[in-house]
Amino acid sequence: MLTSVYWSPDYKRSGGGARRSQHMDFRAVDFKVGGAGRPEAWARTLKR
C-alpha cells in the first residue's frame, strides 16, 4: 500500500523529515508491505 508519494511545500513544513525531500520532486515513494517481514516477500508484493 502506498502511504506517501508527493509532499507539497505546506505539507513538508508541517511534517518534518529531510530538509529537501525527494517527495517534493516526485522522486520518492513510501509504502507499507502488510504481513511481509522478509525481502523475498517484499519482492513478491512489488511484482504484483
SSE inventory with pairings:
Blueprint: E1 2-4, H1 9-15, E2 30-31, H2 39-47
Antiparallel strand pairs: 1-2
Your description of this structure?
- One of its GO terms (molecular function) is carboxypeptidase activity.
- InterPro entries: Peptidase_M15A_C (IPR013230), Zn_M74/Hedgehog-like (IPR009045).
- The protein is an alpha+beta fold.
- It is built from two helices and two strands, in the order βαβα.
- The chain has helices spanning about 10-15, 40-45; strands at about 1-5, 30.
- Strands 1-2 form a two-stranded antiparallel sheet.
- The longest helix has 9 residues, at about 40-45.
Strand order of the largest sheet: 1-2
Helical stretch tally: 2
Uncertain stretches:
none
Distance between the termini: 11 Å
Cα gyration radius (Å): 13 Å
Average pLDDT number? 82
The largest sheet is:
2 strands, antiparallel
- For the secondary structure, the number of strands is 2
Write down the secondary-structure element order.
Answer: EHEH
